[in-house]
Amino acid sequence: xxxxxxxxxxxxxxxxxxxxxxxxxxxxxxxxxxxxxxxxxxxxxxxxxxxxxxxxxxxxxxxxxxxxxxxxxxxxxxxxxxxxxxxxxxxxxxxxxxxxxxxxxxxxxxxxxxxxxxxxxxxxxxxxxxxxxxxxxxxxxxxxxx
Length: 146
Fold this sequence. Notes:
Elements: E1 12-15, E2 21-27, H1 30-45, E3 55-62, H2 66-83, E4 86-97, E5 100-109, E6 123-124, E7 130-134, E8 137-145
Antiparallel strand pairs: 1-2, 2-8, 3-5, 4-5, 6-8, 7-8
Helix pairs in contact: 1-2
């Protein structure tokens, strides 16, 4: 799934919560949903609007179902953001099933001037987590520990 295609459904919305911050993401397929969830996570952590797809980074995760897989996927994105200090401009998923997702992301080293931080995301939680197919589209709700 290419993150530059115009979606027919909204990509994501932020959700209010007393202790954490959350989002709801949508996609026509599980792959599009996972791409849009990664974009939502980045949007909470920093302004990535000026990110350039200069370098390619492999990204993969495993789980036991789509919920655990999404948490693992988003934790990989979070690793790139905070551990590797990379901002990702584009995602492409090569394979996805309920137990495995793999693909590539394009991005560049983080520059706080060009990619100003917003919130420090400590991790992805299982609190009120859901991934489901609903009315012909995929929907996920995720809360982040900030």
